[in-house]
Give the backbone structure.
Amino acid sequence: MRIQPAEPAFDSDGTPYSPAYGDVYHSADSGPGQARHVFVGGNDLPRRWAGARVFTILETGFGLGLNFLATWREWRADPARCERLHFVSIEKHPFARDALKTLHLRYVEFAPFAEQLQLAWPLLVAGLHRLHFEDERLTLTLAFGDVLELMPRLRLYADAIYLDGFAPRCNPEMWSSQLMQGLARLARPGTTIATYSSAGMVRQGLEAAGFTLEKCPGFGRKRDMLRGSFAPRWPPRRSREQAPEPTRRHAIVIGAGLAGAAISERLARRGWQIDLIERRAPPAAQTPGMHAGVFHPHISRDDCILSRAARNGFLYAVARWLALEQAGQALAWARCGVLQLAGDSQRAQRMTAAIAALGYPPDYAQYVERAAAETLAGCRLRGGGWWFSGAGWMRPLGLIAAQLAAAGSALTPHFGIGVHAIVRSGGEWQALAADGAPIATAPVLVLANSNDTTRLATIAQRLNNIRGQITYLPADILTAPRVVLTGSGYVLPAAGGVVVTGSTYDHDNDDPALQVQSHEANLVRLAQLLPDAQLALDASKLDGAVGFRCVAPDRMPLVGAMPDVDAARAHKADLSGAHLTDLPRCPGLYCASAYASRGLAWAALAGELLASLIEGEPLPLEGDLADALDPGRFVLRQARHAKL
Ligand SMILES: Cc1cc2nc3c(=O)[nH]c(=O)nc-3n(C[C@H](O)[C@H](O)[C@H](O)COP(=O)(O)OP(=O)(O)OC[C@H]3O[C@@H](n4cnc5c(N)ncnc54)[C@H](O)[C@@H]3O)c2cc1C
Ligand SMILES: C[S@@+](CC[C@H](N)C(=O)[O-])C[C@H]1O[C@@H](n2cnc3c(N)ncnc32)[C@H](O)[C@@H]1O
C-alpha cells in the first residue's frame, strides 16, 4: 500500500488540522492536556501498569504522537512503572519527519522525548516499524496503513486502548463496528479503553463488541468522554493462546551464525541467560567465510509477502545495527547504496512500472536511468535499475561478534562443540554432545543451526542445502563500483584491497572446496554487471569462499515455535481445516533458520520476533507475515491435503 503522508495545517485558532478529514488533531484547549486527561487518565494509568513486567497500549491514530509522548512522560516519572512498555499505534497518514519536528515545537513540555522520536522516525513505507527507546524498556511499534487492514493483522494483547480517530462524522471507518470487533479480538477481560468521543454510535459499537462503558467528564470544553473495560458477557473466542510465562529466563541457542547471534542478543536484552553452542571456533578465531554480504530491500509489483516481510526485516536490521554502533560495538559495513540493475530493456520497463505503482519514498527505493546509475556507481554500466540508497554491505563475522559482545555476561558461549541431539526431560531441554553428555539445560531451546536444524527436530519438510561460492579479486585489477551492484550476481566496492563478487547457486553440490568453474561463472556474472570488467584471469589462482544456504521450498525463513509433528500426525483428522494456531507445538522449542540468501535482512527481525513470541509481547511484524515464517506451515499444508 502506498503511504500518503499528512501535510501540516492549522485551523483558525492555530490547532493542528487535517484538511483531508476536516477535523483538528486534538482539543483546541490543549493537546497534551487532552492526552493526559482522556487517554492516560481514562485508562487509569499509571496505576494499572504498576509493577507489571510488560504492559501494552494499543492506539488507533498516531497523528502527532502526543498521546505517545504524554504516556512516555508519565511512565518515565513513575517510580512504580512497568518494566517494559509497548505502545502500538496504527496510522494511515503519518507526517514526514521534518513536518513532525516543526509541529512538535509547539509542545515544549515534550521536547526531550519528541527529539528522540523524531530521530528514530521511520521511512514512510507501509507495514510495522518497531522503535526502541529508554534502553529498550519502551517500545513503539508504528503500523503504517489503514486501520481496517492492519488491525486484524496485529498480534498482541492490549492492556489499554486509546481510541483516537478524527470525529466519527469525519472519519467513520475509525469508529466502525468492524474496528470495534477488531479491538475485542486484541483485548482480554479487564483491558481498559478510553476515547474523547461520547457519541452514541461509538458507545453502542463498543458495547456490542463486549466493552462496558461509562460517561465521565471530558477535557476542556468537551462535556463528556467515554471510558470502560472489556467485560464480554460471553467467553472471548481466543484466536490464539498467550505464551505461558517462562519458568526461568534461560535459553539454549544452537548455532552462532547470523541467526543465533541475533536471537541471543535480543533475548539477553530482555534479561535472559543464554547458553550459545557452536561447533565452530569463536568469530575472532575464524577465517572470514563470507567476506561481506549485501543487504537491500526486495521489491515486487504486487508487494508480495516476501517483499513486505523483507522490507520489515531490512529496515529493522539497519536500525538495530545503528543502535549496536551507538552502544559502542564496532561493525564493518557501509551503507553505500545498492543498485539492482535491470539487465535488459523489458525488465527496465517492468522495474520502472513497479516503482511508479508502489510509490515508495525515494530514500527507500527509486528507479534511476543509466546516466544517473553510472554517476552513482562511478563506472560504466549497461543500463539503469532500482536504487536503494540506504542499503549496502556488511561483514557478517563482525556483526556476529558485536551481537555476542552486546549480550555480555548474559551469554555463556560453548564454542568448538557440536550438538549431537536434543532431548526434553523434566520440562526442560537438554543439548547433548556426541558422547551423550549434556552441554546445557534450559526451559527454552532455539535451533539456529541452519542446515542442521531438521536433523535435531522435524518440521515434516526437507530443507535444501544450496552451495554458493564467491570470488575475491585484487582491487587493483579493475575499476570497482562505488556502490554495490546486483543483478545476475553482485559485486561490492573495494574494501581492504579486495573486491568481492559472486555468487554461484549450486544445487546438488556439497563440495566445500573452491571450484574453478564457480570462479569462472562468477567472472561471467561480473562482466554482465560491469561491462569494463572483461578480465582474462586464471581462475585456478583466484581466492574466494564457499558456503551453504539453507533454503525452504517457499524460500521464506523458518522463525517461530516448532511443531510437534508426532502429535499432529496422531490427530491429523482434526487438522484438515485447521489454522496454525491449532497445531500442536513442542513446548519451549523454537527455530530461526532457512534464511536462504538473505541472512542479513532476516536475522535482526527474526531475533526480535522470536524474543517477542517467547515473552508474549506484541509481534514486530504483521500476523500474515508471521504465519508465512511459521515453522509449522508445512505440517499444516500436509494435514490440509491429507498428506501428513
Ligand atoms: C556464497 C554465499 C553468499 C551469500 N551472500 C549473501 C548476501 O550477500 N547477503 C545475505 O544477506 N546473505 C547472503 N548469503 C546467505 C547467508 O550467508 C545466510 O543466509 C546466513 O549465513 C544464514 O545464517 P544462519 O545463522 O542461519 O546460518 P549459518 O551462518 O550457517 O550459521 C549456523 C551455525 O550453526 C552452527 N551449527 C550447525 N549445526 C550445529 C550443531 N549441531 N551444533 C553446534 N553448532 C551447529 C554452524 O557451525 C554455523 O555456525 C550468502 C550465502 C552464501 C553461501
Ligand atoms: C485525532 S488524530 C490522532 C491524534 C494522535 N493520537 C496524537 O496523539 O497526536 C487521528 C488520526 O487518525 C488517523 N487516521 C484516520 N483514518 C485512519 C485510518 N483509516 N486508518 C489509520 N489511521 C487513520 C489520521 O491520519 C490521524 O492522524
In short: The chain has 18 helices and 30 strands. The chain has three domains: 17-230, 250-284+397-462+555-640, 290-393+464-551.
